[in-house]
Amino acid sequence: MTGSLARWSVHHDHFRDQPELVLGGVTWGWLHQAFGSRRHIKRKAAEAIQQPVLVLSAPADRLVVADRHPAFCDRLTHCTLIRYPGARHELLMEEDRIRNPVLEDVLAFLNAQGF
Predict the structure, then answer these.
(1) pLDDT in tens, 58-110
(2) Which of 30, 83, 95, 97 could disulfide-pair with 57, CB 3.0 to 4.6 Å?
């Protein structure tokens, strides 16, 4: 999930110390909604999405197929794709060499949108 054992450990220490915070893994309902939204996006004309989209891609992700991100962005009018070599699924919990550029890119994107 991340290349930072320290951040992962801190994150999971909270669950050990306060088990009532644990949400659990993926549910059937979550999967149903995820697959349904995928079909919905395919049915809609991607060109109709005018809102700028930022896709942060983690090539070493084992949960999401990062190789498909360019094709997704190619279908959108205003899509920015940024890849972080060596990054895994949890970009905001990654090692500083990955997480810091992620945070900078998100802030730059939001600033460019006027936020």
Answers:
(1) 999 988 889 999 988 988 889 999 999 999 988 988 999 999 999 999 999 99
(2) 83
Burial readout 89-114 (b: 16 or more C-beta within 10 A, e: otherwise) = ebbebbbeebbebbeebeeebeeeee
> Is residue 43 one of the residues assigned to a domain?
no
Residue 54 lies in a domain: yes
The structure tokens listed for 76 are: 């959108």
Q: What is the pTM of this model?
A: 0.73
* Sign of the alpha-carbon dihedral angle for 22, 25, 29, 32: positive
- Dump the DSSP string for 50-69: -S-EEEEE-TT-SSS-GGGH
d(CA 81, CA 2): 20
